[in-house]
Amino acid sequence: MAQTAQLDSILNAFKDKAPEPVYTVITKSRTNFINSFNTHAAIQVGDTLPEFSLSDAVGTQRTSGELLSKGPLLITFYRGEWCPFCNIILTNFQKILPDIQAKGVTFVAISPELPNQSLSITEKHDLQFPVLSDVGNQFAKKLGILFQQPDSLRPIFDKFGHNLKERNGDDSFIVPVPATIHVGKDGKVKNTYINPDYTKRIEPQEVLKWLGELEN
């Protein structure tokens, strides 16, 4: 099944099965954020990627300098292991990982979840790329890709068992906007896909097109 069809399937199942009050609150939150998000304030093509030092799933610090010393970098931000849309994109990135690496590109995924949570998602999905923890969303903030979720969602998260305070180590209720960013070895941003609608994600083939069309 194509990725778009996979994402649509999740969204349609939610529409069909979610209680009306839950559906209304979540949909309103998503729509309001889509309408208010300032895409111009997010990192742009041509910008220099801010430096970062983030822990991987086993507690090793990975820095932007270290990763870029190996060549171009491909980064995807995801909201957390609790997000079914995010799990689909991570699984599909794993499928094209050999093609990404064949281009000499290093791929990493970043979320605000604590390292022990990142280890869980790595194990569950048999991911072969680094999953980094942007605790407190400090790096995502530098990129202008934050979503301050409204308090109206808190009871719903509690009902679903999504304890973000436990997962992320804080009670800010902030998640990153799902984004995929391609960075040249010079640290300059070459391509971005930043969509405030978290039910939409970049197609894997589009990412491979990025890597094929641009010189490293």
UniProtKB/TrEMBL annotation:
Q: At the top level of its lineage, which domain of life is listed?
A: Eukaryota
- Tell me the enzyme class: oxidoreductase
CDD domains cross-referenced by the UniProt entry: PRX_like2
InterPro entries for this protein: AhpC/TSA, Peroxiredoxin_BCP/PrxQ, Thioredoxin-like_sf, Thioredoxin_domain
Query: Where does the Thioredoxin domain start and stop, copy by copy?
Result: 43-216
Q: Which reactions does this protein catalyse?
A: a hydroperoxide + [thioredoxin]-dithiol = an alcohol + [thioredoxin]-disulfide + H2O
GO terms assigned for molecular function: thioredoxin peroxidase activity
Q: Name one GO cellular component term.
A: cytoplasm
Record EC number: 1.11.1.24
GO BP term, example: cell redox homeostasis
Keyword annotations of the record: Antioxidant, Disulfide bond, Oxidoreductase, Peroxidase, Redox-active center
Query: Can you tell me which family this protein belongs to?
Result: Belongs to the peroxiredoxin family. BCP/PrxQ subfamily.
Annotated protein name in UniProt: thioredoxin-dependent peroxiredoxin
- Species name: Talaromyces islandicus
Q: What is the lineage of its organism?
A: Eukaryota, Fungi, Dikarya, Ascomycota, Pezizomycotina
